[in-house]
């Protein structure tokens, strides 16, 4: 269960992915500093006050730099985390103190970023907010990683 790239968003929400992750299809994360971009060219960004993630115009700010190592995706020393609660069949994503719990583990499946907890895909649809949702291979679920 690993992730090779990430995208930074001001607000991140995750909605349900249908498929359960298969161990053989999981790509291991490489330790490096990444900028994670959406299919429409925006960068994931961390809101340091609310600890939310969203898609925003790319800049050189540290709030758009993610450290990817193992199954962790970190920004500003915090880990991306799938929230335990859900609203309207979507799961929110936030940056929180790293605990190593399953809700902070991620892996890359093609151009999608999936939660190891539930197999849902990171989704940047609607209002540039990030959420976890059912995987549907839409552009809102496609991410690229750059240094």
From TrEMBL:
UniProtKB keywords: Signal
Leader sequence residues: 1-18
The organism's place on the tree of life at top rank: Bacteria
UniProt key word Signal: yes
InterPro entries in the cross-refs: Ricin_B-like_lectins (IPR035992), Ricin_B_lectin (IPR000772)
Keyword ATP-binding (UniProt): no
Domain annotation Ricin B lectin: ranges: 30-146
Pfam families assigned to the protein according to its UniProt record, in alphabetical order: Ricin_B_lectin (PF00652)
Protein name: Ricin-type beta-trefoil lectin domain
């Amino acid at each position: 269960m690993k992730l090779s790239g990430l995208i930074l968003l001001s607000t991140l929400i995750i909605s349900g992915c249908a498929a359960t992750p298969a161990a053989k299809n999981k790509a291991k994360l490489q330790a490096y500093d990444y900028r994670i971009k959406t299919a429409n060219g925006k960068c994931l960004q961390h809101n340091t006050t609310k600890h939310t993630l969203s898609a925003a115009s790319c800049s050189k700010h540290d709030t758009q730099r993610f450290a990817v190592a193992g199954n962790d995706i970190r920004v500003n020393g915090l880990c991306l985390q799938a929230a335990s609660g859900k609203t309207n069949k979507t799961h929110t994503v936030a940056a929180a103190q790293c605990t190593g719990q399953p809700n902070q583990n991620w892996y890359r499946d093609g151009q999608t970023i999936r939660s190891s907890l539930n197999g849902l895909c990171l989704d940047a649809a609607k209002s540039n907010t990030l959420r976890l949702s059912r995987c549907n291979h839409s552009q809102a679920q496609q991410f690229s990683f750059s240094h």
